Write a sequence for this structure.
């Protein structure tokens, strides 16, 4: 049976998509093909801004800008004959490799039968047969490191918890994906819930835990619903509960919801939240692997890590270890967003360069503007300038550039993005999300933000830059948890690579990207002005006056620098300085 | 506020989570799912039925952004301010909504119809900038679209 996948990224089934879905089904039915092909809605095929996207399996043809008039063609050619409809076909640059996303969009996430038919729970069967030590050995061979950001070797984490004596241990899946601009974990939880559950059971078996907890953002209702459904069916099929696969191993899983606190991605804060408390981190050691949830040894693994585990135990650690580069094995999923043509999730082997990801896979910059920087690691990461775009992606290589791998956000910035402004955005996020427990983060963040605000308003002084680095260093060294320790990274990395932009803001009182409204002046070039008056009609404060003969002028006393006139002018007559 | 079956509602929730350690956040989620926010009367009732001090309940309620202490508007207008949306012009959308509805973030219009919420990443960055009104998602929104989006909902009243 063939499958016709339809992309519904927002999960809301907009009218035109619904119509297409209905038309597809009725066309199949009318032509007696209802048992030959099935129409499935999936959340992400990985092609965006190309109208309605349809993929036909098993051929794997992707069709873009599909309209209901194309249905007959697609059905006649592809569904019946397995041939491609060339006019609609989309060719995806093939630098990607799917391990974590291996099933996303391919199988029905709500069907355990489908998962099992795709070799699901084979890894668990292997693990139960080989015993905990061998599982950890296999993980060591794979070289898998935590995909949540810090990159701690998974086998080592497991081994630490395994080594602690005692009955009660826990394994927690960290699905509190809070990095703005990243949604890898959501896609995996929604698209392949069983792979994550399988990884968790394997992890639990390896460390000797009997209980697993999914900690998932409440903002991801579909992910929660799919995981819950998968858990229920696992209990019904004997894949969870008592004596799994007749091995004598018991394992229970439940879900706990996050409630919108970024700091809860930090291990100790996450544990506090699962315990029903405020998400305050606590000093380490003791590490959660020794003393975690309810003071019992606890392993915390990220969603993507666990999705890798089920693959590793199925294919073998050695095979996995051959993918990627020394020290960073396997693949990494990135949420490629920002000013890039094809935005969406990409999965590449470690060692792929940033340039390959953004230009070959991402198709380059939106509207062909000049690229300025690539940001990785979200609010804890840094901005990477052009000269380093040929850096192979890996934990150490990104760290050397002053950024981090992070959970997988990758945001492209173009010439219109101001580095001071974007640093202010990230820092503002961390200040908002700081839990307030320790002073360096609580006070340092606010102070840095105030200085950045001053600079973007044109009130910056020369020693402000020095103050920024000083406070940043104090935060890095003295904050209690990862949030505070890394909050200054975006500022530090932009000061390092785009120091000129800071100086222009402070000394010349100019914003080169034209983003900081107080530092930008607009004027109208009379030669180019046709007197159409579009700018005046779009000015929110009536600062523009004139007519067809005298042309238009901007009253600087009234101008608020919103840039509306600059954007709407069709003749390039509005100048920005 | 007057809620008819408050005691019974709370009892169902409290019973559901009885005996599970660290259940407070889950109890509050259930309450918010039921009422759209956590009314003070419900928090008091949870305290009374579970024996947990009210201060403990509010300690948690006030820490997490997700919990609302005031009744939301009829429509919840959420503007995404994740990085992708920020770069693609979400701040201008927020400005526009403020101008149209005369509310700031976290406020509800006087007629109780629209609540403006700013959220950190809805997890669909490919569609940036994104606005949701309740469950309906608007993608690649331009400033000029905002009036239409609001109007679409005011018309349904």
């Amino acid at each position: 049976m063939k499958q016709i996948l339809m992309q519904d990224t927002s999960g809301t089934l907009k009218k035109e998509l619904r119509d297409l879905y209905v038309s597809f089904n009725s066309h199949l039915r009318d032509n007696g093909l209802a048992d030959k092909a099935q129409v499935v809605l999936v959340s992400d095929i990985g092609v965006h801004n190309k109208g309605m996207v349809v993929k036909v399996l098993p051929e794997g043809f992707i069709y873009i800008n599909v309209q209901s008039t194309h249905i007959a063609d697609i059905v006649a050619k592809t569904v019946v004959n397995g041939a491609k409809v060339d006019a609609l076909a989309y060719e995806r640059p093939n630098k990607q490799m799917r391990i974590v996303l291996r099933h996303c969009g391919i199988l029905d996430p709500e069907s355990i039968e489908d998962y099992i038919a795709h070799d699901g729970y084979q890894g668990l069967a292997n693990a139960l047969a080989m015993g905990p030590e061998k599982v950890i050995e296999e993980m060591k061979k794979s070289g898998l490191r935590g995909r949540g950001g810090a990159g701690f070797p998974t086998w080592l984490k497991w081994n630490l918890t395994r080594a602690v004596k005692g009955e009660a241990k826990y394994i927690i899946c960290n699905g509190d994906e809070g990095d703005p601009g990243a949604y890898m974990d959501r896609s995996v939880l929604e698209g392949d819930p069983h792979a994550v559950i399988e990884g968790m059971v394997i992890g639990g078996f390896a460390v000797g835990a009997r209980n697993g907890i999914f900690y998932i953002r409440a903002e991801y209702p579909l992910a929660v619903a799919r995981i819950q459904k998968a858990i229920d069916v696992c209990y019904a099929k004997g894949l969870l509960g008592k004596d799994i696969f007749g091995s004598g191993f018991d394992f229970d899983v439940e879900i706990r919801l996050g409630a919108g606190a970024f700091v809860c991605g930090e291990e100790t804060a996450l544990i506090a939240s699962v315990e029903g408390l405020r998400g305050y981190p606590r000093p380490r050691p003791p590490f959660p692997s020794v003393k975690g949830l309810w003071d019992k040894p606890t392993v915390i693994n990220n969603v993507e890590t666990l999705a890798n585990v089920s693959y590793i135990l199925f294919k073998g650690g050695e095979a996995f270890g051959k993918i990627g580069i020394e020290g960073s094995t396997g693949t990494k999923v990135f949420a490629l967003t920002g000013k890039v043509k094809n935005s969406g999730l990409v999965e590449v082997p470690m060692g792929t360069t940033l340039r390959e990801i953004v230009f070959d896979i991402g198709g380059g910059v939106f509207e062909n503007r000049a690229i300025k920087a690539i940001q990785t690691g979200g609010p804890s990461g840094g901005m990477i300038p052009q000269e380093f775009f040929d850096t192979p992606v890996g934990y150490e290589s990104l760290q050397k550039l002053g950024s981090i791998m992070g959970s997988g956000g990758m945001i492209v910035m173009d010439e219109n993005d101001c580095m001071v402004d974007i640093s202010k955005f990230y820092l503002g996020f961390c200040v908002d999300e700081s839990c307030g427990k320790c002073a360096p983060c609580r006070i340092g963040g606010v102070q840095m933000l105030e200085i950045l605000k001053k600079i973007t308003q044109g009130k910056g002084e020369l020693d402000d830059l020095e103050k920024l680095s000083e406070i940043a260093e104090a935060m890095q060294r003295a904050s209690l948890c990862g949030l505070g320790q890394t909050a200054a990274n975006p500022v530090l990395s932009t000061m390092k690579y785009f120091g000129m932009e800071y100086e222009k803001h402070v000394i010349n009182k100019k914003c080169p990207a034209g983003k900081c409204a107080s530092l930008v002046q607009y004027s109208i070039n009379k030669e180019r002005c046709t007197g159409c008056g579009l700018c005046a009609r779009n000015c929110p404060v009536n600062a523009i006056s004139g007519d067809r003969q005298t042309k238009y002028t901007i009253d600087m006393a009234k101008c608020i620098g919103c840039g509306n006139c600059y954007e709407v002018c069709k003749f390039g007559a509005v100048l920005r300085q | 506020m007057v809620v008819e079956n408050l005691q019974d509602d709370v009892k169902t929730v409290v019973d559901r989570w009885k005996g599970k350690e660290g259940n407070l956040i889950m109890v509050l989620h259930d309450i918010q799912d039921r009422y759209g926010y956590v009314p003070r009367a419900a928090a008091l009732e949870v305290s009374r039925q579970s024996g947990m001090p009210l201060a403990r309940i509010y300690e948690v309620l006030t820490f997490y952004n997700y919990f609302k202490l005031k009744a939301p508007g009829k429509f919840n207008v959420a503007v995404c301010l994740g990085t992708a949306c920020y770069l693609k012009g979400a701040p201008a959308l927020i400005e526009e909504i403020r101008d149209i509805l005369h509310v700031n973030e976290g406020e509800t219009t006087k007629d109780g119809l629209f609540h403006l919420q700013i959220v950190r990443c809805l997890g669909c960055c490919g569609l940036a900038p994104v606005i949701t009104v309740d469950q309906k998602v608007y993608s690649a929104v331009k400033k000029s679209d905002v009036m239409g989006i609001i109007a679409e909902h005011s018309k349904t009243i």
Notes: The longest helix of chain B spans residues 6-17. Helices of chain B lie at 6-17, 24-35, 40-50, 54-61, 83-87, 90-101, 146-154. Chain B has two domains: 6-61, 75-154. Chain B has a mean pLDDT of 90.
